[in-house]
Design a protein that fits this description.
CATH topology of the largest domain: Diaminopimelate Epimerase, Chain A, domain 1
Radius of gyration: 18 Å
Distance between the termini: 19 Å
Number of helices: 5
Order of helices and strands: EEHEEEHEEEEEHEEEHEEEEH
Shape: globular
Number of domains: 2
Length: 282
Amino acid sequence: MSAQPFIKMHGLGNDFVVLDARRGMAPLDAEQVRLVSDRKFGVGCDQLITIEPSTSADAFMRIHNADGDEVEACGNATRCVASLLMAETGRDAVVVDTVVGPLPSTAAGSDRVRVDMGVPRTDWAEIPLAREMDSLHLDFALDEPGAEALTDPVAANIGNPHVAFFVGDAEAIDLPRLGPKIEHHPLFPDRVNVSIATVTGGDIRLRVWERGVGITRACGTAACATLVSATRRGLVDRRATIHLDGGALDLEWDSDNHVQMTGPVATSFHGTLDPSLLARRG
């Protein structure tokens, strides 16, 4: 394999290695994804993004988490890919296709993009949960020290599964220890992204444990799922500014039930993947 160009990008510190495969590129297997994503031996990223051809949109976006698993959605990566496509085409609106459907995206000011993340799913089977229950009040318990505040969560699917816990102080939760235990809880057969949220007025402080990645500085789909969950609980009125570790996203659950996400994009650097990295094993 020849040297493969890439772009390192991020949305609020949620970082990506972006590969353009529209002109031909051998797909990376799970081990190669893990090698590229490794922060000591590879480039380092939360997700590896591949831009591929699409017959129905401006491009197709394929997403792999740092652990090598392919996943369905990534809001911050969608903004990054949309910004590349807008710069390439000279347009201020593009459509990014994904395995869960097209995501219309528009320019929203200097280095900011607005993405229509679609209609959230809240039925237990669509999230999915392991058994039938009300997704607004999950029958959930975590028998771990320090998990006393993690009760009565809300579940939603914004292209991928999320669970949100609303607590008095999001900073007080030991997310590095408890996040993986929730991610792998039997209630979530596809594993789950974990949000710890504190609502203050029209603002939400949010910390996120992403499945297959760990704690990330920002997660677009988690912000969307948390807005939907907070609205369903009556904690906010269909819009909020979500404050993540890496910065703020503006969210609105509009009258058509589509979730609109607006936030920044940034390019860190350009580079090439050395073929020896992708050939490395062990």
